[in-house]
């Protein structure tokens, strides 16, 4: 039987502080994995989301919609917009010093997002309960104070390295284990200024 999904933090949840070694506000977080569709430079047609540490447990990101991201003519595909939010919300893990995967993600599409426009995404953590991370994000059109185009809410769940090693296709896992520099998020925890 599937578990009930919920984006409401339980009563024992706490509002988190950034990890003591979290990147300082404004720090570029870069790609977490070179082949990641959300942020990787090597991913063909990828979103190439650029993410920076924000104030508190938050991140800011920009995503420019290209012709490869269309759903309707000249408009961004909703699924790809959701991907951009998944990526931005996942980057909150940098601020908590944990690696987390998406358990549940909801997206509200408020306005169409044209090709050529840039979404300014602000994502923040509302609460943490054990391994569960409750976060929200808002995306504004063409400026950090532009009109809201997309909003999202998510539950991420912290996982260990074994999540990826045990579940990923052996070929890619081996390539990454042989060259850990492909996983930039691991390195990011070491180069924090
Ligand atoms: C090689 C190294 C690579 C490193 C690369 C870094 C890449 C980063 C990538 C980022 C890429 C971008 C991001 C991406 O795209 S990540 C890709 C998309 N996401 C996934 O593939 C995740 C697939 N799901 C799972 O693997 C498991 O279900 C997880 C790990 C999530 C939990 O299974 P696990 O067996 O571990 O734990 P648990 O079942 O005891 O659950 C724990 C708690 O969580 C609660 N819960 C769980 N799900 C839900 C739900 N849907 N609604 C409400 N609640 C939910 C659950 O009730 C429980 O609560 P409680 O009973 O404790 O109160």
Automatic annotation (TrEMBL):
Region (Disordered) residue spans: 1-29
Enzyme class: hydrolase
GO terms classed as biological process: fatty acid metabolic process
Subcellular location: Cell projection, Ruffle membrane; Cytoplasm; Membrane
Keywords tagged on the record: Apoptosis, Cell membrane, Cell projection, Cytoplasm, Fatty acid metabolism, Hydrolase, Lipid metabolism, Membrane, Transit peptide
One CC-aspect GO term: membrane
Molecular functions per Gene Ontology: hydrolase activity
Catalyzed chemical reaction(s): (9Z)-octadecenoyl-CoA + H2O = (9Z)-octadecenoate + CoA + H(+); decanoyl-CoA + H2O = decanoate + CoA + H(+); hexadecanoyl-CoA + H2O = hexadecanoate + CoA + H(+); octanoyl-CoA + H2O = octanoate + CoA + H(+)
Membrane topology: Peripheral membrane protein
EC number: 3.1.2.2
Main location: membrane
CDD domains (alphabetical): PaaI_thioesterase
Ranges where the Thioesterase domain occurs: 74-133
Ranges annotated as biased composition (Pro residues): 7-23
Entries under InterPro entries matching the protein: HotDog_dom_sf, THEM4/THEM5_acyl-CoA_thioest, Thioestr_dom
Family stated for the protein in its record: Belongs to the THEM4/THEM5 thioesterase family.
Protein name, per record: Acyl-coenzyme A thioesterase THEM4
Species per Swiss-Prot/TrEMBL record: Embleya scabrispora
């Amino acid at each position: 039987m599937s578990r009930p999904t919920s984006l409401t933090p339980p009563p024992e949840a706490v509002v988190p502080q950034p990890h003591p070694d979290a990147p300082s506000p404004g720090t570029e977080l870069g790609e977490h994995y070179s082949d990641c569709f959300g942020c990787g430079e090597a991913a063909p047609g990828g979103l190439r989301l650029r993410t920076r540490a924000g104030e508190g447990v938050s991140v800011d990101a920009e995503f420019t919609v290209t012709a490869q991201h269309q759903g309707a003519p000249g408009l961004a595909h909703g699924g790809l917009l959701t991907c951009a939010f998944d990526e931005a919300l996942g980057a909150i893990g940098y601020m908590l010093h944990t690696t987390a995967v998406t358990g549940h993600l909801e997206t509200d599409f408020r306005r169409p997002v044209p090709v050529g426009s840039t979404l300014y995404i602000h994502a923040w953590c509302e609460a943490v309960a054990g391994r569960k991370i409750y976060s929200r994000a808002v995306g504004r059109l063409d400026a950090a104070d532009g009109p809201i185009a997309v909003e999202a809410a998510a539950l991420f769940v912290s996982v260990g390295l074994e999540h990826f090693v045990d579940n990923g296709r052996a070929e890619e896992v081996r390539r990454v284990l042989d060259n850990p520099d492909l996983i930039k998020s691991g390195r990011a925890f070491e180069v924090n200024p």
